[in-house]
Amino acid sequence: xxxxxxxxxxxxxxxxxxxxxxxxxxxxxxxxxxxxxxxxxxxxx
Length: 45
What we know:
Helix content is about 55%, strand content about 0%. The protein contains 2 helices and no strands. The chain is flat, with a radius of gyration of 14 Å.
């Protein structure tokens, strides 16, 4: 049954890492925009 939710660890890690950006939203948006411009992901920010 535990194998149904294999995505949980990545979301836990993502939430943990994002908490480090709590007071730096402008920097995070800039970083994500740069990644997008370089083609690392194709999703609107």
